[in-house]
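Title: Prediction job returns without error message
Component: structure pipeline
Severity: low
Priority: P3
Assignee: unassigned

Description:
Job completed but the reporter wants confirmation the result is attached to the right record. Sequence as submitted:
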Amino acid sequence: MIRFIFRVLATLSLAVAVIMAVIDATRSIAASAWVLTPLAESWQAVSPDTFAAAAGFVRKATLPMLWDPVALTVLSLPGFAVFAVLALLFYLVGRRPERRRFGRFATG
């Protein structure tokens, strides 16, 4: 059941990454130059209230110093890259363990 949840999260993260990549590709074609939208900019465009709430929560629940160097660094990365890495991590956690057909050594 837990593996299933991680696989669903991986699928949703990959879907968001693809959507954000298509948006960046469309903007790049229109501008005739590379356009990579940071995650913070996309998040603030969609829901500025939740961005402010998340910033306040991270500052109160953790060390206040954690917001500036760590969170803002991640939020300055392109959104599709962040969600692609999340999808990969969720997939790795939710994948089935490898089953070996034979013993420890290969049989000929």
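Comment from assignee: result matches the submitted record. The two ends are 37 Å apart (CA to CA).
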